[in-house]
Design a protein that fits this description.
The chain has 268 residues and is an alpha/beta fold. It folds into two domains: 3-59, no CATH class; 80-264, 3-Layer(aba) Sandwich (Rossmann fold). It has seven helices and ten strands. Strands 3-2-1-4-5-10-9 form a seven-stranded mixed β-sheet. A three-stranded antiparallel β-sheet has the order 6-7-8. α1 (3-30) runs antiparallel to α2 (38-59). The radius of gyration is 19 Å and the shape is globular.
Length: 268
């Protein structure tokens, strides 16, 4: 971004949100180098995330009468990687965790009725943005943190639990994943799709405090600047956890994704 565009962006933030908003955006960008507590960094991350989605819809020219893309198409097919993990049932319930303002999941699978529930801790912020741009989502995101799934959903409620580019933003990703495993049915899957080493790539700014990665043995690891846990080995009695690196389309072309499949063990 050019200096002129940066100045325009900064002036826009100042005009819309004042100095408080400007301060939070600055903290989100440079908080790694400041002696701030986790709550302040988290609040800064919230503002940064909300601003991202506001710009996302603004750049696409909303409001407009006929939005396009998989997020808005009721006939869009569910992604093949998700479909491959669904049970044989003719009706399936999918939980999209950290879904953002509009779930990225397709809505149709041949021979199945798909029921999608979307949750995100920033749902109130997203509703404000959706209202601003006069957008009515096909699936309305409900407010709930990944670490609190069992406060709203019973154990063994979903046929698949999905999360894309979000659990490494969680306050406690290990607990979030355990909650996801709890609410998926015995024998079924949690599917995680994330950029590897995102905290390092983003210099530990805003929400980016955790790295997801695969070690030389193919194990799934979660790391922060202070700790590391091998999820595959730690929770072998709870689930079978495998991961792989794949190339998927992204901004600017093909990008690396860490795909983690967690199959909940059947109760004995």
């Amino acid at each position: 971004m050019s200096i002129v565009n940066k100045l325009r962006t900064a002036l826009g933030i100042l005009r819309e949100g004042g100095f408080g908003e400007m301060a939070l955006i600055t903290i989100a960008q440079f908080g790694r180098y400041l002696p701030l507590n986790a709550e302040i960094k988290r609040k800064a991350g919230v503002r940064s995330e909300a601003r991202f989605w506001d710009e996302y819809f603004k750049e696409r020219g909303f409001p407009k009468p006929n939005p396009s893309g998989i997020r808005f198409d009721p006939d869009a097919l569910l992604q093949p990687r998700v479909v491959s993990l669904l049970p044989i049932d003719t009706e399936v319930r999918i939980l999209d965790v950290g879904a953002g303002p509009i779930t990225c999941l397709g809505k149709k699978v041949q021979g199945k009725k798909v029921i999608i529930t979307a949750i995100d801790p920033l749902a109130d912020e997203y509703d404000r943005i959706l209202n601003k741009y006069q957008i009515e989502p096909l699936v309305r995101t409900k407010k709930l943190a990944a670490e609190e799934l069992t406060t709203l959903f019973q154990s063994n409620s979903f046929d698949l639990v999905y999360a894309r580019n979000c659990i490494d933003h969680a306050f406690d990703p290990e607990k979030a994943i355990l909650e996801m495993v709890d609410v998926v049915k015995n024998g079924d899957y949690v599917l995680l799709e994330h950029f590897p080493n995102e905290a390092e790539n983003e210099n530990f700014r805003g929400f980016h405090q955790w790295n997801f990665l695969m070690d030389a043995n193919g194990d799934f690891l979660i790391q922060s600047s202070l700790s590391s846990v091998n999820m595959t080995r730690k929770y072998t009695d709870l689930a079978t956890i495998t991961c792989e690196m794949v190339k998927d389309s992204g901004a600017g072309g093909q990008v690396d994704w860490l795909i983690t499949r967690i199959q909940k063990r059947c109760a004995t």
